[in-house]
Design a protein that fits this description.
This protein is an alpha+beta fold. The chain folds into three domains: about 80 residues, RNA-binding S4 domain (Structural Genomics Hypothetical 15.5 Kd Protein In mrcA-pckA Intergenic Region, Chain A, Roll), CATH 3.10.290.10; about 70 residues, Pseudouridine synthase; about 160 residues, Pseudouridine synthase (2-Layer Sandwich), CATH 3.30.2350.10. Helices cover about 20% and strands about 30% of the residues. Strand 4 and strand 5 form a beta hairpin. It is elongated, with a radius of gyration of 22 Å.
Length: about 350
């Protein structure tokens, strides 16, 4: 970005969005917006700027415009750019199985298994979802937009290593820009199914509590008091199956902060079952009897990670503009765990 522009980086569970603000000088003569931005944005092209305008990711005074719009003095231009990798950080595909739910020339929807890291990072330089996608596409280039050097080609959002479920991957620059804008605007439908400790007092509710990096443990997130830090975060939840000691919940994300559901459930007093980061990997509800404790530990072994599944994903297709909606049933081990708990509490109630 060239001198005089303002920029901010917003990190979310969806990924990274770079937000640039450009204020047109008071003496500016009329000039097409694509030509105007080409002179002010580094490492970009006129075609990429035009794609951003078409996707609604570049606005003037809060309104969408066309590429032939002529900027005027004091116009406030906002540019949203998905942060991906820079050239020179090529990823070589690896033959890793993929569960592809949907694919066309513009995007893919994938059902990610537990244990798979989405993109390369410290300690995970190989074996990621990105490596598997590159192999599936015969190592063809995925869309790359100019920004910080992050190995996230095609990604517009992410889910945690041990979270299962649905993800969308862009195969073209326009799809990447259009989908990233939808995530930024929080218009993408995302719901998760999770098993949590205990049973909330109400059948449904909303957690509205800012989330930010925990100052005491930088690998975790934490809830902050309003005005004291963190970023706006809202999770809608409802009980699908109460089982006294545990409950099956559906959580719908209104925002998408890192670890949002896991942090908000802990904040409610109902941490995600077997979540080691947020207190769910020990007995939180139930009796003191050793037989019960052994039952819980056997359940931990059934699903040896936090129990969270990205079950629903809905968005507008970048090219056809048609609504797309996908639902993925619970993984077998998650389903078996729920059945085991249901049978246990049913037997307890009948004695």
């Amino acid at each position: 970005m060239k001198k005089g522009n303002q920029a901010s980086i917003e990190e979310t569970e969806e990924g990274f969005i770079e937000r640039l603000e450009v204020v047109v000088d008071g003496g500016q003569t009329p000039l097409r917006i694509d030509k105007f931005l080409l002179d002010r944005l580094e490492r970009t092209s006129r075609n990429r700027i035009q794609l951003g305008i078409k996707a609604g990711a570049i606005t003037v005074n809060g309104n969408t415009v066309k590429s032939n719009y002529k900027v005027r003095p004091n116009d406030a231009i906002e540019v949203l750019i998905p942060r991906t990798r820079m050239p020179g950080q090529e990823i070589v595909g690896e033959d890793i199985p993929l569960n592809i739910v949907y694919e066309d020339d513009h995007l893919m929807v994938i059902n990610k298994p537990a244990g798979m890291v989405v993109h390369p990072g410290i300690g995970n330089f190989t074996g990621t979802l990105v490596h598997a996608i590159k192999h599936h596409l015969d190592n063809q280039d995925l869309p790359v937009l100019p920004s910080n050097p992050l190995d996230r080609p095609g990604l517009v959002h992410r889910i945690d290593k041990d979270t299962t479920g649905l993800m969308v991957v862009a195969k073209t620059e326009y799809a990447l820009t259009h989908l990233a804008k939808q995530f930024y605007d929080h218009t993408v439908e995302r719901s998760y199914v999770t098993l949590v400790w205990g049973q909330p007092d109400e059948e449904r509710g909303v957690v509205s509590a800012p989330i930010g990096r925990d100052p005491k443990n930088r690998t975790q997130q934490a809830v902050f008091e309003e005005g004291e830090g963190g970023k706006h975060a809202i999770t809608h939840w409802e009980i699908l199956q109460p089982m006294y000691y545990v409950s099956l919940l559906r959580c719908r994300l209104e925002t998408g902060r890192t670890h949002q559901i896991r942090v908000h459930m802990q904040h409610m007093g109902n941490p995600v079952f077997n979540d080691p980061k947020y207190g769910g990997n020990r007995v939180r509800k139930g009796t003191v009897f050793q037989k019960y404790k052994q039952f819980v530990h056997n359940c931990f072994k059934m699903v040896p990670h936090h129990v969270l599944h990205a079950a629903t994903l809905g968005f507008v297709h970048p090219e056809s503009k048609e609504p797309m909606r996908f639902e993925e049933p619970l993984p077998a081990d998650f389903r078996d765990l729920v059945d085991k708990w249901y049978a246990y509490v049913s037997n307890v109630g009948s004695t």
